[in-house]
Amino acid sequence: MTNPTATGAAPSKGSHLRVENLRKEYAGSLALAGVTLDVRPGEFMTLLGPSGSGKTTTLNIVSGFTEATSGSLHLDGVRIDDVPARNRGIGMVFQNYALFPHMTVAQNIAFPLKQRKVAGPDRSRRVADAIATVRLDGLANRYPSELSGGQQQRVALARAIVFQPGLLLMDEPLGALDRGLRESMQLEIRRIHREAGSTVVFVTHDQEEALALSDRIAVFNQGQIEQVGTGEDLYLRPATLFVAEFLGESTVIAGSNGESIVVRPERAQLVPKGKQVGTGRTALDAVVVEEVYLGHDRKLRVRLPQGEIGIVRESAGSMSDLRIGDSARFTWSPADQVTFAKRS
Question: Quick one: pLDDT at residue 213?
Fold first, then answer.
């Protein structure tokens, strides 16, 4: 089999990845229970889910570092199950960066090109281009120990894109960074994705990160995919209660017939006790138990009649005078709720 990205030739576009019915067992424990996923050329796809949900196992099988128990992988229409990891032509960025400490920035970035026998002049040009892409100009001769965490992450990213792979895999690459640097690198990763055109499969357990980066998100739970869609789809139209509760904050209320009603914080409203509730709105008695001022808005948590905790976000300029201990009515429009048959 010949993979064009494994020769160092630039792909005309990102690769098309097809994952079909992947299963993975470890000593009788099922890590993946039939994962199927179609990642479009040039797409930024995020695998999102809690620890142990199967997202990293899926990524490792695609990369070739882990062998599936059953199922198949297709890259640009070619089945790659039996292709060794080194021959799949896939770029990989790890959480721990995995830089060679004895190599300079330029030498680390050049390593994949040397492995692919890219000639000296072309290799130097590509390394220089990659350094410029990740904005590390002037640091080519430094060693990893002389770089900040953010700079090391940029080197790892440059090394992954320097041979212009059609598919780039990223395993929680920002997990070790502080919040400010993490947000800055999110913007850089999006920019680089647009410029390079590679297909990206990105693993994270951070919901905000997934929403900020992704074209689409695959939500994993217990070795299966619960739902695939845009951030808007998943937030506004969750297919399962797990997705509704995992992606963003929600109020989950038990309905009279055993169903679960989900209301997002910005769709709910608190009305002080004794004041009129809007026509057509559902209302429950509530007591404010927590208040968090966030500058641009305020988050209130309230206790509802059956013990559930309701969450309301009030935007700046329309904040109520309610404080901890105050009684109120927790209200929402039925058009804004999502209803599930039962808790799962």
Answer: 94
Cα torsion angle, 231, 236, 237, 239, sign: positive
Architecture of domain 251-340: Beta Barrel (2.40)
The model's pTM: 0.87
Could you tell me the CA-to-CA distances from 306 to 273, 282, 341 in Å, in that order?
A: 18, 15, 18
pLDDT, position 6: 40
Place of tokens 């070790």: 176
Buried b / exposed e along 109-140 (16+ C-beta atoms within 10 A): bbbbbeebebeeeebeebbeebbebbebeebb
Mean pLDDT of 328-341: 94
List CB contacts of 181: < 8 A, sequence separation 6 or more.
149, 150
Kindly report the length of the chain. Answer: 344
Where do the structural domains in the chain lie, given as residue ranges? 4-241, 251-340
Q: Each residue of 27-61: pLDDT tens digit?
A: 889 999 999 999 999 999 999 999 999 999 999 99
Span 4-241: which CATH code? 3.40.50.300
Count other C-beta atoms under 10 Å from residue 10's C-beta.
13
Q: Bigger pLDDT: 234 or 297?
A: 234
149-161 and 179-196 helices, crossing angle to 10°: 20
